[in-house]
Amino acid sequence: MEHFYQLGWTLDSAGGASGEAYMAEQDGHKLFLKRNSSPFLAALSAEGIVPKLVWTKRIETGEVVTAQHWKNGRALEQEEMNSERVALLLRKIHGSKHLSSMLKKLEMKPMFPSMLLAKINSSLSRQVMAHRVVRKALTYLDEHMPVLDKAFYTVCHGDVNHNNWLLSEQDELFLVDWEGAMIADPAIDIGMILYTYIKPEDWPQWLRQYGIDDSLDLRKRMKWYTVIQAIAMVEWYEEKNRYQDMNYWLVFLDDVLSRNRFI
After folding, report:
1. Looking at the domain assignment, is residue 263 inside a domain?
2. Is there a catalytic annotation at residue 159?
3. Which UniProt keywords apply (predicted)?
4. Catalytic option among 27, 142, 149, 159
5. Which residues contact 27 (CB under 8 A, 6 or more apart)?
6. Is residue 239 part of a domain?
């Protein structure tokens, strides 16, 4: 990012796993800069789902840098994930034909359950496979694979944990960090929110806020996608040698498998 230093900007890392995000400041003006963002960012900005995109530039290295308005704010607290605002914004995302059309223009294909399962099966290390609950979960996934008409697939975020929800000082709610965006069954996002943050007795109310009815079919799909995402989290933390976090997700995985045994 030497280009921006030369133009008189100060840059500070904005965190994130990629290390490619920065808070840039010049004469009191702040921007959120990111290298190699997807063209999908423009569509998200137009829908008001992420802070407004200011410009996109290609710099001397050939990299593309995007700039968004810097928003002072905070991540949502876990208990705030039960709010109607979260449900409504997620519904807006899943129902957006504009976002779906943009991902299709970027030649993104639907992510079917069989593809997700094949991907996880091919990536798991022997260390992860050594856990009984992981082997049990893989058997469950193989035996309960959901079937859903492709017409119901929508734009999904893929990582809806509370740290990716930004509440600005102006009380604006955004969903950020879209590197894992996909065209998939919306239950992949809904399930992780419900299993992670919402008490089971409150699921029907949250789903009504989102705009759909509770059903056995939906619960089966949510459980399946939550199980596969939990395995992916176990794998990620094992690779990072973050064993305390890995153990949290092993316990979470076991809990999800134990709940609603009839599905």
Report:
1. no
2. yes
3. Transferase
4. 159
5. none
6. yes
